[in-house]
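Entry 12.
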Amino acid sequence: MKNGYLDFDEYIRQGEPQQKERAEAWRVAIGLQAVDGLKTSEYLHETARRNIEGEISIDEARELIRTYYITKTHHAPDDDEKQEADQVSANITKILSYSSLDFSTKGYIALHRRIFEGVFKHAGQMRNYDITKKEWVLNGDTVNYLNWEDLRRALDYDIEQERNFIYKGISPDNLISHISRFISGIWQIHAFREGNTRTTAVFAILYLRDIGFDVANDMFAEHSWYFRNALVRANYRNARKGIDYSPIYLERFFRNLLFGEQWDLRNRYLHIYPTEEWSVQPNMSIPEQVPHNYPTTTPQLPNKFNAYNSNIIKLVSIIGKQELSVKEIMTSIGLKDRKNISVLYLNPAIQEGYVRRLYPDSLHHPKQKYLLSVKGLTLYNELIKNNNN
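Predicted 3D structure (tokens):
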């Protein structure tokens, strides 16, 4: 505990497997409260510590938090906000720790009820009026949220479309674009009076797990406010001001989350009228010189790198002049799922001619390894050269 607040990283780095899982769930749950400007209490962090260390169950933790505010005799001005943050954090922790996803409109509504149980009287109830919300990132304007009469019909449609979507053979670029559109659309419906972003975030985590991704939950813990603002920009258009829908910011969030890219996720980049300093959002995993310094006499190298090629860059940098197995590549990149490595890194790099197999005629050779082609080595040497400049 530091100044009354829990150091989750210590448990995640050094704790037992169960402690690590509990700490990750608490970290995300607490981080998500920032989307509504809420902060948890010291009591919540102490209770979370006891749960992480196995002294109490998550249900016991939830009950302790509930009774703490009922029996509290001295009330501070921010008690209502902290009570909401504390109880919702505990509820989300339970959901992330144990829950599979009921992928349906009914399941989405039930998720809202479970997150805000004991907090909102209207938990699990869809709104029955239209809403607007002034947004800092829109200079005080609002997203056009769906009118309340169409909420259930819209949820039914979006979820059914996603249920029937086929991910097999999809490129990394299209994967990110599709997931961003789906999550953005669910959020834009804004089915509830309050708590829509937190519900959408938990829903996204559970859904991505359900379709096979090893989700890096720290993204939601550390960048929940960016996630919300990116959803706002993805759903805002104002023709009079010359502003169109901008899903790119949300796509960059999901690129960091799923591909391990390093887009700078600070909110000032998302403002519709950014200052010159904040007008270009950088990808910190790509050397600054790379997009500009490819010689025009080398046709096999792209003139610039887009977000899709950043995975190839990362893989080329890792392999270098070595011969690596899939397991060694997985360890270097930090992904645990073999399918993700193939779909997001190896297959694109092989298809583009940067990487080749040691045994090309025997894909499942027991000693199969991957190395750079001549094209890949050219790119690798160019990256080294630029890094040394």
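Annotation: The CA atoms of residues 321 and 372 lie 7 Å apart. The domain at 118-285 is CATH 1.10.3290.10 (Fic-like fold).
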